[in-house]
Amino acid sequence: MFSVSNLFKKTIISLGLISLAGCATPPVIDTSKIKNVKSVTIVDIPEVRVHALVGQLPNTHGIVHFSDDLSAFYDVTKERKTVDIEQANTEISKAVVESQIMNTPNTTVAGAGLSGAAAGATAGLINAMGESANENAANFNEIFEENNPNLNIRRDFLSGLTKAIEGKGIEVYLVSDQLPHTPYFRWDAPNKNGESFQQLYPDALPTVDTDILIQVSPIVLFNAGSALNAYARIVSVGIAVYDGRTKEFFGYQELSSVDGLFDYHVYDNLVKDIDVAGPAIHAQLMSLIPAIADAMETN
Predict the structure, then answer these.
(1) Is 222 exposed, middle or buried (0-12, 13-18, 19+ CB in 10 A)?
(2) What distance separates the 2 farthest-apart alpha carbons in the chain?
(3) Which pLDDT score is estimated for 3?
């Protein structure tokens, strides 16, 4: 099981505001199986979208990570920023998967200037969480990016994770054959009954020539439980670990940090302060990286 560093014990490690975890009981990562690691493959993800929303995230699969419940947090059509990781050696060509996200009518996303998969996913999420409470927030990610041009959640998280693992003397590679798609588990992820407890990637994907394969599902969210609550800074990363050569599932774990000390009771105030709140929530996400890298260290 991953340990929680003192760095983010100072924040509230809680999922109550957004209910990321449901009734599913996924196997916790068995770090005793992570031995003599010399090489790791990280599965690439689409560009990450940042949201500011009132209400609870939908949870239809037991956990929201690695499921369609998080489709609005990933822009599967946006050009990805360069990450300095060598591509892993696989025999399969880049998977081509049609986007399953349909645009939802009668929402505010069109007025926000969004289109395509990002528009459909955002519309669906806003409708599910309450359109009236979130009618102004459809283009929050664009506001975030415009005011924080040096921040990129996907690039910075994958690059930071790579450097942290490489700092343990481990070679790190990137595999990008699950794009474009909301992150799903790459291979079978059996629960205690031997059944896969979460959505799987629809195509059969090959093994990789590294000791470990890691999947990550980072999300960044300013969230108010209701209209009476202030927005809290919430970051969460779903982590799935496999044997890269045999596809053996070592388990799943979620690292999350909630900082509710910010006094943004009104969406407009959060937007006005996004040049301060943006770097703060970015740093909060990056603080989760050491615990993941430490688990890769040779036992």
Answers:
(1) buried
(2) 54
(3) 52
